[in-house]
Design brief:
268 residues; mainly alpha; Tetracycline Repressor, domain 2; 2 domains
């Protein structure tokens, strides 16, 4: 969240980067990032207990009380949003509040109700880059929307690959994920590839909108083809090795894309 917010800030800055404003933006974002994690841990504490990958977290194993978790989450929510409102601007603070609300109040409870929770969860994951953009003075226009959709679509193959690898854990925890009823991986692979294909043209928009230059365009095209290829592998035949490959490709894709954006930003 901090890396994407910093990239959004740099892209949204018209002239030189105001380092103090950037620091304040990242401090506020860090507080909100912390509260989304704390709130999520509180909301899924019961489900986490039977899940091997999460049963050792502080709440499921009893090292932290629910009262302490609520107090902590409430304090840093108020602090993070207020900090952004005072030191940055009200719009960025509102986006931070939306990040918290969509993650804790929508995404987390939907985990037990519908596999569409992944789509909802991608919203707070995509908002920090928009918050960085507005923190630097950028407006909520087409360019900000393009950045949002790049982050939104990038997350889905990333999450789907991981969810398929840990489908038994999710099943044990009673969480509704597409992968839970998809042992052969066909549905997961199909959706992962769909989102990777959709991301490819969207990732080229920053150049078409005049935010980045030609180097970014061709770099994003190359990275997008690699992401699609990794998604295709999971669809052709889902195996743990191919799912891990897609997951690691997703981890490499995002910082590489953000680096290209920053290095090839078109001067205002």
């Amino acid at each position: 969240m901090l890396l994407t917010a910093a990239a959004g800030f740099y892209l949204g800055a018209e002239d030189r980067v105001d380092l103090l404003l950037l620091a304040n933006s990242l401090i506020g974002t860090a507080l909100v990032a912390g509260v989304t994690t704390a709130g999520n841990r509180f909301r899924v504490r019961a489900a986490a207990t039977p899940m091997a990958r999460s049963r050792r977290r502080p709440l499921p194993c009893g090292r932290l009380t629910t009262r302490a978790a609520i107090r902590f989450a409430s304090a840093i929510t108020a602090g993070g949003v207020a900090y952004l409102g005072v030191t940055v601007n009200v719009l960025t603070a509102a986006l931070a509040l939306l990040t918290f609300a969509s993650y804790v109040l929508l995404y987390t409870p939907l985990k037990r109700k519908t596999s569409l929770n992944t789509l909802v969860g991608a919203v707070p994951g995509a908002l920090p880059i928009v918050g960085g953009w507005t923190a630097a003075g950028g407006s909520l226009g087409v360019a900000a929307a393009a950045l949002f959709w790049i982050l939104f679509l990038w997350q889905l193959p990333h999450f789907l690959a991981l969810a398929w690898l840990y489908r038994d854990d999710y099943r044990a925890g009673g969480l509704r994920m597409l992968s839970v009823a998809d042992d052969d991986g066909r549905d997961t692979g199909r959706m992962a590839l769909l989102y990777a294909v959709a991301l490819l043209p969207i990732s080229l928009l920053p150049t078409l909108l005049g935010v980045t230059g030609a180097w970014y365009f061709f770099g994003a095209l190359l990275l997008g083809v690699g992401y699609v290829a990794a998604g295709t592998g999971l669809l052709v035949g889902a195996t743990p090795a191919r799912a891990w490959r897609l997951f690691f490709v997703s981890i490499l894709y995002l910082p590489a894309l953000l680096t290209l954006m920053v290095l090839d930003k078109v001067a205002a």
